[in-house]
Write a structure and sequence with these properties.
The chain contains 26 helices and 23 strands. With 789 residues, the chain is of the alpha+beta class. Among the domains are: 102 residues, Distorted Sandwich (Calcium-transporting ATPase, cytoplasmic transduction domain A); 138 residues, 3-Layer(aba) Sandwich (Rossmann fold); 113 residues, Calcium-transporting ATPase, cytoplasmic domain N (3-Layer(aba) Sandwich); 143 residues. The strands form four sheets. The chain has a seven-stranded mixed beta sheet with strand order 10-22-21-20-11-18-19, sandwiched between helices. β21, α19 and β22 form a beta-alpha-beta unit. α4 runs parallel beside α10 and α10 runs parallel beside α21. The radius of gyration is 33 Å and the shape is flat.
Length: 789
């Protein structure tokens, strides 16, 4: 019933005002007065309750002036003025309630996911018991896909676990006998036995639930914009009303001052601007659950972010394929994807997605077997293919080179063995979101002065992301408890926004001044704990939300200040006796209309913060983005040709260099020329300057120069019958340099220009099948078993 109070109050007060107006026009003055008295009294009762509630919390808000005005009109017989004020008050409260309703912080998903029973083994008997009965040193059996019920240690077999609920990292990890396991993680392999080291009440997952609930309860109530201004406006209004009464001896003058002092610019205009901002944000894919959250977002200065799923895509993609000497990378990928079609492992999904995106024809595997923690083996055609771990350390030179490359790139390795012999390796990693760098720049422009990253991942990949994005601080290997402590420390220094997407982020979201959840792929718990939910899987929507929040707050402040200035002028006139209460109420209505119309400007957004693209320009962005996806994989041919040349300038090396030059001449250079001739001129208008693309044009010139230099080397080598020794050093510099330059150039264009388009079409965002929760295949990370790419 509580959500219906404000709308019902609006209906009653508007009805009383209208009925009184009809009665007055018909000459029934007493009936009109009765209707207006009734509307005023109806408004007084809840208004007094609101004032008392605010006083109990130690706050004095705009409602106190409204109550004084309502009571004053009843005492001096200005019933029409009272009815008008009642309508203003009811309308303002209804708007404020619409802007302030937010979802509960009950974190239902956390509670529903928590296990309630455990399998305890006593001797040879296994029985199901309530979780509360688990004691330290009990032997528990954790079945496939079960949530680990309490903290403990693995007793015998290797446990393959999905720890994403606690760390946010997507890859499974292995825990061996004696290793500690935290409650809340999922058994992604075969059943294993666990010796409990804590009761359910003292275990990790229960602590996360408590932490989230405590953080939400400790959050200070939002002091709204209107109440902050009312703290100064109220004493001034009372002083003027009292002075007018004392100077004239007429209480009517005091009431007239209070009538025009009724802070309708605060009661109406500020909520209208905030509600308009909420409406605009929802159209941009941002659900803001309260006007207070929008206001706080508008003056936040610190942003704390999770890494995986927030700054990165949250799922791995194939970044390279290494084939054994004489092998074919495309065939290695095709065989691996054929085998992985029947696996639900997150890396298997990435391999299949990549193969389908390349248009490879997959075969249906037979005789499939999957060993949790090791990999998948199947027959494809006449060959027995295994995708997963290699087992012993690689001895072949090409395999060791693949391991080194994976370590340098912070990538995971899925080895492909054919008939028991290593034949290739697929390198995978969790890529940075394409919009992330541009979003960070926009957020700094919006007023954020401190950008911090918290992640459960290792230090190396965390530092790499922080370096690319220019973050001010990075904290790696963070537990949910660590994240909450870090957010609280930041919140003590400044208004702090926290962005996350996983269950492990929910407590930190609740602890922040404003919590923002990546709701499109994030956990339900993080969305429940957040003040703001990004409904699309795009990080740049956070920058949009910041722009909307600051514009809406600016309009709200502007409307309130202008409205109160006009009210102050009217108060002085009323204090001099030149403005009776009823006329003052009508004048106040005129002021209200003016400030509300101004507040509605928040619906349009800040024209200076928007980049509007013509439809043909957006089409060009999609076209060149798709070409990038097609060309990105071919860039490795430049590096491979240089690697082959290092082995010796023989005929095979010359053939590799010629193939690389053909790639440049036939595909890459035409693409770059088309960008220069078509895309860059089209971007000059929306970016408001041709200088915005000037650095990229200079890069195009350098790409052309290096390609021409490689072409000259090719002609010289063909004329001489092979690559000459004096050519090798310069040719290597050109090939390696052009490879690095093209990769950087592609990324710069994608981050600076392609993200301007409304919808993205990067290959890493495509998925050919839903991710499932079942027994995973295993892959081997490049560095150790316990990290994601």
């Amino acid at each position: 019933m509580r959500p219906l109070i404000e709308p019902a109050l609006v209906v009653v007060t508007v009805g009383a005002l209208a009925a009184g107006g009809v009665a007055w026009l018909l000459g029934a003055r007493q009936v009109a007065d009765g209707c207006w008295i009734g509307g005023t009294v109806v408004a007084v009762v809840p208004a007094v309750a609101w004032v008392l509630g605010a006083l109990r919390r130690g706050r004095v808000g705009v409602d106190l002036i409204a109550v004084l005005s309502l009571v004053g009109t009843l005492l001096v017989g200005e019933y029409l003025a009272g009815a008008l004020i009642a309508v203003m008050l009811a309308g303002g409260r209804a708007l404020d309630a619409a802007a302030s309703r937010r979802a509960s912080h009950d974190l239902r998903a956390l509670l529903e996911r928590a296990p309630r029973f455990a399998r305890r083994r006593v001797g040879d008997q296994v029985g199901v018991i309530p979780l509360a009965e688990v004691r330290v040193d009990d032997v528990l059996v954790v079945g496939p896909a079960d949530v680990v019920p309490v903290d403990g240690r693995v007793m015998d077999a290797v446990a393959v676990l999905d720890e994403s609920a606690l760390t946010g990292e997507p890859l499974q990890v292995e825990r061996r006998a004696g290793d500690a396991v935290r409650s809340g993680v999922v058994n992604a392999g075969d059943a294993f036995e666990l010796r409990a080291t804590a009761t359910a009440e003292d275990s990790t997952y229960a602590g996360i639930v408590r932490l989230a609930q405590q953080a939400g309860a400790e959050s200070a109530p939002v002091v709204r914009l209107a109440d902050r201004y009312a703290a100064y406006f109220l004493p001034l209004a009372l002083l003027l009303a009292g002075s007018a009464w004392l100077a004239s001896g007429s209480p009517v003058r005091a009431v007239a001052v209070l009538v025009v002092a009724t802070p309708c610019p605060l009661l109406l205009a500020a909520p209208v601007a905030i509600v308009s901002g909420l409406s605009r944000a929802s159209r941009a894919g941002v659900v803001i659950r309260s006007g207070g959250a929008l206001e706080n977002l508008g003056h936040a200065t610190t942003l704390v972010m999770d890494k995986t799923g927030t700054l990165t895509m949250g799922r791995p993609i194939v970044v390279d394929i290494v084939a054994a000497p004489g092998g074919n990378a495309a065939e290695i990928l095709r065989l691996a994807a054929s085998v992985d079609q029947l696996s639900a492992h997150v890396l298997a999904e990435a391999i299949v997605t990549e193969a389908v995106a390349r248009g490879l024809a997959l075969s249906l595997p037979t005789d499939v077997s999957e060993e949790p923690g090791r990999g998948v083996t199947a027959t494809v055609g006449t060959r027995r293919v295994t995708v997963g771990k290699l087992g012993d350390n690689p001895s072949a030179g090409w395999a060791q080179a693949a391991v080194n490359r994976a370590r340098l790139d912070n990538a995971a390795v899925a080895w492909v063995c054919i008939d028991g012999e290593p034949a290739g390796a697929v390198l995978l990693r969790d890529p940075l979101r394409r919009q992330a760098p541009r979003t960070m720049r926009r957020l700094r422009e919006a007023g954020l002065t401190r950008l911090v990253m918290l992640t459960g991942d290792r230090v190396e990949p965390a530092r790499e992301v922080a370096a690319v994005l220019g973050l001010d601080e990075v904290y790696a290997q963070q537990t949910p408890v660590d994240k909450v402590a870090a957010v609280r420390a930041e919140r003590e220094r400044a208004v702090t926004v926290m962005v996350g997407d996983g269950i492990n982020d929910a407590p930190a979201l609740a602890a922040a001044t404003v919590g923002v959840a990546m709701g499109a792929r994030g956990a339900t718990a993080s969305s429940e704990a957040a003040d703001i939910v990004l409904t699309t899987d795009r990080l740049d929507r956070l920058a949009d939300a910041m722009d909307i929040a600051r514009w809406s707050r600016r309009i709200a402040v502007q409307s309130a200040v202008v409205g109160m200035t006009l009210s102050l002028a009217a108060m002085v006139i009323a204090a001099l006796g030149w403005l009776p209460p009823a006329a003052g109420a009508l004048l106040q209505e005129g002021i209200d209309v003016a400030v509300i119309l101004n507040a509605l400007r928040a619906l349009r957004g800040d024209p200076g913060a928007e980049v509007t693209l013509p439809s043909d320009t957006e089409t060009l962005l999609h076209r060149f983005s798709a070409e990038h996806d097609e060309l990105r994989d071919t860039l490795g041919q430049l590096r491979s040709s240089a690697d082959r040349l290092v082995e010796g300038p023989d005929d095979a090396a010359l053939a590799a260099v010629v193939a690389a030059y053909d790639l440049l001449a036939q595909r890459i250079l035409p693409h770059e020329r088309a960008e220069e001739a078509e895309l860059y001129p089209a971007l000059a208008t929306p970016l408001q300057s041709g200088e915005a693309t000037a650095p990229m044009s200079r890069t195009h010139a350098e790409i052309q120069r290096l390609a021409d230099r490689i072409g000259t080397h090719v002609h010289l080598a063909e004329a001489a019958g092979g690559v000459q020794p004096d050519q090798v050093e310069d040719l290597l510099a050109c090939l390696y340099g052009l490879y690095a330059l093209l990769r950087l150039h592609f990324v710069q264009e994608e981050e600076s220009y392609f993200t301007l388009a409304q919808e993205e079409v990067p290959s890493e965002s495509k998925s050919v099948r839903p991710q499932q929760d079942s027994t995973p295949a295993a892959t081997e990370p490049a560095v150790n078993q316990n990290h994601s790419v």
